[in-house]
Write a structure and sequence with these properties.
By secondary structure, the protein is mostly helical. It contains eleven helices and no strands.
């Protein structure tokens, strides 16, 4: 019961963080879950919580969603899901943490990614492929997704809203993959799923209210440094997990 309470508290805090920055919360939550429960159970709970969290965020900010991004993104995501279904892969916990931690650094220091703009249909489709692969392997993909938006001419509300709707779809695909297509039996109590999802909505509402107080320049600067600090912690924990007998 103590573990479940910690998980619910983590859901609230990370939902608030994601509501403000549009990312980072899911990455932190995935690191916590994969360190405490099995990978498949972590993916299922994380997928349910993040689908609700991102879904509620996209609803709260629905007037800012850039709908033109969605069709090409969905095409890329569908291609990635089909490829994963063919191999039915479930990664090791240490690998998940390393992947979660590595993504922000790869995205930040890859010149090619830094020039991408989600307003382009080709970029949106490529983003759907790359981000969905990251979600199915590492559970979280916010830092990588963020790189596709940094050079777009969108406001902070448009960025957070548009990322929320694509992340909602991605987490639903993760639930489909780990809950149905892979068919893994690892489960957590139903009440925990319901409590965590309700908590995610509450945290998201608080976070989106705080977003109104953050300027666009501050939003981009703060989000970048926060995500790199979290990524470093995930890399350290992932290495420790793999090296511990």
């Amino acid at each position: 019961m103590g573990l479940y309470l910690i998980i619910v508290a983590s859901v609230f805090v990370t939902a608030v963080l994601s509501g403000v920055l549009g990312m980072a919360g899911g990455m932190i939550l995935m690191a916590i879950l994969v360190s405490t429960v099995t990978v498949s159970a972590a993916m299922m709970l994380h997928g349910a919580v993040q689908a609700v969290s991102n879904g509620s965020r996209s609803w709260f900010l629905r007037q800012h969603i850039q709908w033109r991004i969605l069709p090409p993104y969905m095409l890329g995501a569908a291609l990635a899901l089909a490829a994963f279904t063919a191999v039915a892969l479930v990664p090791d916990p240490g690998i998940v943490l390393l992947l979660v931690g590595a993504m922000p650094f790869v995205a930040r220091f890859s010149p090619g990614l830094g020039a991408l703009d989600m307003n382009s249909p080709a970029t949106a489709a490529g983003c759907g492929i790359v981000v969905t692969v990251a979600q199915l392997l590492a559970g979280a993909s916010g830092p990588l997704l963020d790189m596709f938006y940094l050079n777009s001419n969108l406001t902070r509300h448009q960025v957070v809203a548009s990322k929320a709707i694509t992340q909602t779809l991605g987490h639903l695909l993760k639930l489909l993959y780990y809950g149905v297509l892979v068919g893994n039996a690892d489960t957590l109590p139903a009440w925990l799923f319901l409590t965590a999802m309700a908590t995610a909505v509450a945290g998201t509402r608080v976070g989106t209210r705080l977003l109104d107080r953050l300027a666009d320049d501050s939003f981009r600067r703060v989000s970048g440094w926060v995500i790199l600090a979290i990524a470093a912690a995930c890399l350290i924990q992932g290495a420790r997990t793999l090296l511990t007998p």
